[in-house]
Design goal:
Blueprint lengths: L1 H17 L19 H39 L18 E12 L11 E12 L11 E16 L4 E13 L6 E14 L14 E14 L4 E13 L10 E13 L1
Antiparallel strand pairs: 1-2, 1-8, 2-3, 3-4, 4-5, 5-6, 6-7, 7-8
Length: 262
């Protein structure tokens, strides 16, 4: 038995030396896994690279599929209306002109006996559609950008006139074949008024102040180009604390007018 073990040991050592390795420096667990031959290393590297490449291909395919699906969903969804300016006044790039007039009443609770100030404003607007109508439920619609020039008299309270500019972002609710189309809009800009600071009790402190608006409205299509506008809105005028006192004027009111697409 001892003679057999010695022969086995000498044979193993001889094999190791032939392979170019000194058995004295080999790790203890190298009896069955001495060193991978160069072909084995190359094969394993190829397997790792192949697995990594497969994962990248799968990930790329998934991203491509998601992108194609999203694009197909956007293009394949049934359009609310035809997407050309000629057949659809709400198509991207379509323009419209609006004219509206209405009263706005002082909405403060009138503390410290500050005067109520009421206006009647005439508004001229020019709008452009920023996107085509999209969606298929009751929220379907598009975005519109409008610029407004407004002016009007002070019909109650100190001062005589107020005029200014507003930039609006509007969302039109557009449904197929609908003749009544609601919308919501918010806007900001500037306003000039000759309302004196002392007589207004600090409601107005500067001749030029900021103008904020929020509006809900309905557009009643009379034909493909003309529409009737009905609006209810809120207005705020103040100087954003540039100068005190800065109580500001809050008003609620409404407009009636018309729109024309071109």
């Amino acid at each position: 038995m001892t003679h057999y073990l010695k022969n086995a040991f000498h044979k193993k050592s001889h094999n190791l030396i032939v392979d170019g390795e000194d058995p004295a420096i080999l790790p203890r667990n190298a009896s069955t896994n001495i060193l991978a031959s160069p072909p084995d290393c190359a094969r394993r590297k190829r397997e790792v690279s192949s697995r990594a490449m497969n994962r990248l291909i799968v990930a790329g395919a998934l991203l491509f599929f998601c992108g194609v699906s999203a694009q197909a969903g956007a293009e394949g969804s049934p359009p609310v209306v035809a997407q050309t300016v000629a057949s659809n006044p709400f198509a991207s790039g379509a323009k419209e002109f609006q004219s509206a007039i209405g009263p706005f009443f002082f909405a403060d609770n009138n503390p410290n006996n500050r005067p109520a100030i009421d206006f009647v404003f005439e508004s001229l607007r020019l709008g452009v559609m920023l996107s085509n109508p999209h969606g298929s439920n009751f929220l379907a619609g598009n975005l519109e950008l409008l610029g407004e020039l407004f002016a009007g008299p002070v019909v109650s309270g100190p001062g005589n006139v107020a005029t200014g500019l507003t930039l609006f972002l509007r969302y039109n609710f557009v449904q197929p074949q609908a003749r009544v189309l609601p919308y919501v809009q918010i806007g900001a800009g500037g306003v000039y008024t000759n309302i004196p600071e002392k007589e207004s009790g600090g409601l107005i402190s500067l001749p030029v102040e900021f103008n904020l608006q929020g509006t809900i409205g309905t557009r009643i299509m009379l034909n493909d180009r003309w529409s009737l506008l009905l609006e209810a809105g809120y207005r705020h005028i103040s100087n954003a604390e540039i100068k005190k006192p800065n109580f500001g004027i809050d008003s609620v009111g409404g407009n009636v007018g018309f729109g024309f697409f071109f």
